[in-house]
Design brief:
This protein has a single domain (2-282), classed as Alpha/Beta hydrolase fold, catalytic domain (Rossmann fold, 3-Layer(aba) Sandwich), CATH 3.40.50. By secondary structure, it is of the alpha/beta class. The strands form three sheets. Strands 1, 2, 3, 4, 5, 6, 9, 10, 13, 14, 15 and 16 form a twelve-stranded mixed sheet that branches. The chain has ten helices and 16 strands.
């Protein structure tokens, strides 16, 4: 376990699963669901690790081992997941303040995790800070999407780009809106609406997943693919080979499980799918 601190004093715990192979296929950040922890996604982390991916899995503020916050005056308090409100969820995704990213005054949970990856990657070739893939589960998918849009918004410097580090994203039964946090603003950005290869994994009758897919489908009318729970498929007319022609996927399974429960139950199915999906995107 590693410990890092956000700009507002939250001590975050994160777990690093270095690729089992000498050279990693890519770096994956796992973002768990509300009122859960990294431990719920560990079967997915271990499977991706064994398949050659390096994985970083934090406990978000108020969850697992990330419940302590230290204030500048020395006071400490405990964060509880069930008591988190919109402001707390916004703080998880924040990354702003100044033009130079490494000197940003506001660094939330996911930005702090990214900073750890960036620093560690300088000495560990199995990590690549500019070749990230994200897996977000439940509300974690919503928060990961919001941070991904903010990562892409960092302006380049004369020395090179500061953002656009996420190369592909997987949302496992993403939540459209909860406790004031909504994925809507992220879906309006060029990054999420058009640019980023994205796969949604969901149980049948998952309305939020379908809503998000349909909203994105309108922006990618020539590049979407859907697999339904009964095994039937649908696709954009321009898509002949989904592997090469589609950039947006909805894969639905015959279960009512959602979030981390779905991620764990479906891990044996999802691991080879994600390794293949991420590897193809990182190779482009």
């Amino acid at each position: 376990m590693e410990s890092v601190r956000t700009s507002d004093g939250v001590n975050l715990a994160l777990w690093y699963y270095p690729a089992a192979t000498e050279q990693a296929l890519g770096t994956v950040v796992l973002v768990h669901d509300l009122e859960s922890s990294h431990a719920a996604l560990e079967p997915l982390a271990l499977g991706l690790q064994a398949a050659g991916m390096s994985v970083v899995a934090p406990d978000l503020r108020g969850h697992g081992e990330s419940t302590n916050r230290e204030w500048p005056n020395g006071r400490t308090d405990e964060l509880e997941a069930e008591r988190l409100r919109k402001g707390d969820l916004d703080a998880i995704t924040v990354t702003q303040g100044g033009r130079v990213r490494e000197q940003a005054t506001l660094r939330g949970d996911l930005e702090t995790v990214y900073g750890w990856i960036r620093r560690t990657a300088r000495a560990d070739q199995r990590l690549a800070a500019d070749q990230l893939c994200i897996v977000g589960s439940g509300l974690g998918g919503t928060l990961a999407s919001l941070w991904t849009a903010k990562d892409a918004a960092w302006p380049p410097l004369a020395s090179g780009p500061q953002g656009r580090n996420v190369q592909a994203i997987c949302l496992i039964s993403p939540v459209f809106a909860l406790k004031g946090a909504t994925i809507g603003p992220a879906l309006q950005t060029q990054t999420l609406s058009r640019d980023l290869p994205l796969v949604i994994l969901a149980g049948e009758r998952d309305r939020d997943a379908t809503r998000i897919f349909n909203q994105l489908k309108g922006k990618r009318s020539d590049a979407w693919f859907e697999q339904k729970a009964d095994g039937s498929t649908d696709k954009a007319s321009a898509v002949e080979n989904p592997t090469t022609d589609a950039s947006l996927f909805l894969l639905t399974y015959g279960t009512t499980e959602t979030g981390d429960a779905l991620a764990t139950a479906g891990s044996q199915t999802f691991i080879p799918l994600l390794v293949d999906f991420f590897s193809k995107q990182l190779a482009k």
